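Hi R.,

Here are the chain sequences for the assembly we discussed:
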Amino acid sequence: MESVIFDLEKASVREVNQFLHGAPETLEGRQVTVVSPNGAHNLAVGVDAPVQVLIDGHAGYYAGGMNKHATIIVDGSAGTGVAENMMSGKVHVKGFASNGAGASAHGGLLVIDGDAGLRCGISLKGGDIVVGGSVGSFSAFMAQAGRMVICGDAGDALGDSLYEAVLYVRGSVKSLGADAQYEEMTDADVSAVRDLLKAAGLNHDPMSFRRIASARTLYHWNADANQEY
Amino acid sequence: MCGIVGLLVKTPALREQLGALMVPMLIGMTERGPDSAGLAVFSQPLDAAKRKLSLYSGFTPEGDRFDWKGLTAALNGAMNVDAQVDVQGNHAVLTLAGDPEGVKSWLRAAFPLVYLLSTGRSIDLYKDIGTPAQVAARYDFANLKGSHLVGHTRMATESAVTPDRAHPFTAGEDFCLVHNGSLSNPYGVRRMLEPQGIHFDTDNDTEAACRFLEWRLREGDELPVALQKGFEELDGFYTFLMGTSTELALIRDPFACKPAIVAETDDYVAIASEFRSLAHLPDIKHAKVFEPAPEEMYVWKA
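And here is the predicted structure of the full complex:
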């Protein structure tokens, strides 16, 4: 099927998104390319069809947000909130991503080849995130479900107030957040990391990752804790 | 919300185009800051005995028809400073030989409604209310020349929309600061500085940061030392971009609450709140683009 090209020197973001919000059956399997994205916000948000979108350059805020079914590639960096609240499909950032990447994603796979900023995977609700580089502070804060694979390092307070999301880190962790703890890598963990790395196109030894999950001590109010978490 | 832009050209030939390269950057940040805009441009410094003052007449009844030549003649009559003036509507750059403090005292007494925007050997400063495009056209930003500049588009949150509360703020000589964010302890900082004889022009939170950092520099701190003290004393959300006669400097708060992005080529370093403002710079496709980390200092030499 022929590819559709939008040049944002001429077309508006609204035209791109209205096209991408067309009937799923007409979009299925199509290739849409956005050239000269010029850091525009809200590119390819709310897509609900198995369409391939290539953003050929740097994207602004919320690129691929709320994605369902689509495969969205950003051939550049992404601003705040890339793939936030993704439901399914895949968003692949070939450069770096700013703050809040994959925030509250319910499903799908977010791949960031470079570094991610602060609060990556905050409130993750079931999506998977693979970061080829490092993540900033407060990543996976209150993450409820889903998995994060971090091939580089993590900043401060990783996994603070984690629920049932599981984090795998290869590099150093500046500090763990409240209630996050290192745990043994089981065979299932090694296999999960192997599969996620493969899906992300990254080549690391799954055994070189450490598992971080919730100690679940914050699940119940402890009146004797004296706010010492 | 506010927008920040900065540009430092490494290739001397580009100094002629500094303003032309910057105007689209500033206008690109209109959505982040539509109520006021401003810019400080640094160029070849004057001789050591000379100073230039950027002045604003928008608060006088005459506004942009203010009699700048009359002010200059009166100043030359009162003091032997060989003052010369370069006028652009409600804005003028007064160049003088001699003690700028004496001239400032004279100005305050003789023309209390003329507002002093900046003092130095290298800095010219423009700021006013209006959209970035309007302010850029008002002062012909496209024709500005120099080695580096600091610009700002404002969406006021912490104090009123007035020309003196627009950014950049200045303190001392050849120092300016723009801010995206909001400080939570500006009055504490102010109470610490005022007993040192430091005077504030406005109730704006950014002015506290500007005067704090300039005070540290004046007390002898090198820029990185002053910025480290800024991390310790200034509480709140901020991306600060600062200009001196020889440098641009950028810091972000530890939570990186306010954005910043940098593009660097062999010809220039460009800084903006968002990539949108960098997208049309020459050879941007081959620029090294990165996001400055929180609580790190970035200093670029002109």
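Chain A has two domains: 1-73, 99-220. The longest helix of chain A spans residues 187-200.

Let me know if anything looks off.

Best,
T.
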